[in-house]
Amino acid sequence: KKGVCAVDHCEFLGNNKVDTDAIDYDGIVDGIIRNTKVSGFSGGNSDAIDLGEDSKNILIENCYISDCTDKGISVGQASTCTVINTTIIACNLGIGVKDDSSMANVKFCTLYGNDYHFAAYEKNLGKGGGKIRATNCILAKSYFNDLYNDNSKNLNIINCNSDKNWTIKGNLTVNYSFFNANNDDFRQNKKEKLLQINKSVKCGTKYFWKFKNNKKALLLSEILVDNQGIYNNENGKKPDFIEIYNPTNT
Q1: I want to staple 72 with a disulfide (CB 3.0 to 4.6 A). Which of 33, 65, 162, 175 is the partner?
Q2: Separation CA 179–CA 82 (nearest Å)
Q3: Cα 81 to Cα 11: distance, rounded to the nearest angstrom
Q4: Local structure of 153: helix, strand or coil
Q5: 138 near 146, Cβ under 8 Å?
Q6: Which of 64, 83, 50, 82 lies closest to 13, judged by CA?
Q7: pLDDT digits (tens, 9 = 90+) for 132-182
């Protein structure tokens, strides 16, 4: 909240608790969320990423988001972000932007199996709705529809591909097949690449998200600050401690 923040090479595994967001930025400026996986936040009103309270210029890059009951990425309260090379699957709203001129600029992303992939709308009366500009994205297998908006001017879709029967000028309708969507592999089959809008246009997320970090490093696995003296030892002392774990054989 109102600080400097970067999340990089992290994995957030969810639960069924209500009102539980994996990452919640409030009032953050120039923040980063990168190379990160979020999955399984199944409680009500639970987002993978929630940007609010005038968070500005947030970069969300190379992320993989799945199975969240509310939004994969929620942008509100005059917040702005850029989303690049990110895959969002099986959420209520893939990317939802609402109110106070909130804005998401979305590039080279793949959205699959969400109720709605993009939603730009006015949540609170008089707040004016949010805006999404999406370029070079793949939208596939939406449960209800690819797009939800209460003002068509708030959605700007350019050079995107959908398996729906779109009538949006400058976009293409393609029934995409992927290498193995059931196993989270959303690379396009080679045959599908030939069906791009033109040879110079590439769409969708590059297959990247399995972390390739072979660095040997110690992990800070537990921190206990015993302010209330609950864990007293035999001598009645309060053992604050830090636990360090070595995951390697070195």
Answers
A1: 65
A2: 27
A3: 21
A4: helix
A5: no
A6: 64
A7: 999 989 998 899 999 988 777 788 998 888 888 766 666 666 666 777 777
Q: Which of 46-50, 159-163, 186-190, 246-250 comes out lowest in average pLDDT? A: 186-190
Cα–Cα distance between 94 and 71 in angstroms, integer? Answer: 6
Q: Residue 45 in 3-state DSSP?
A: coil
**DSSP 8-state secondary structure symbol assigned to residue 190:** H
Cβ-contact 111, 89 below 8 angstroms: yes
Cα-Cα-Cα-Cα dihedral sign, residues 150, 40, 217, 86: negative
Query: Residue 152 class from Cβ within 10 Å (0-12 exposed, 13-18 middle, 19+ buried)?
Result: exposed
Please answer whether residues 54 and 77 qualify as being in contact, where contact means their C-beta atoms are separated by less than 8 angstroms: yes
Q: Provide the mean pLDDT of the chain.
A: 83
| Residue 17 pLDDT exceeds 80 | yes
pLDDT tens-digit map of 50-67: 999 999 999 999 999 999
Residues 6+ apart with CB under 8 A from 56: 28, 29, 30, 79, 80
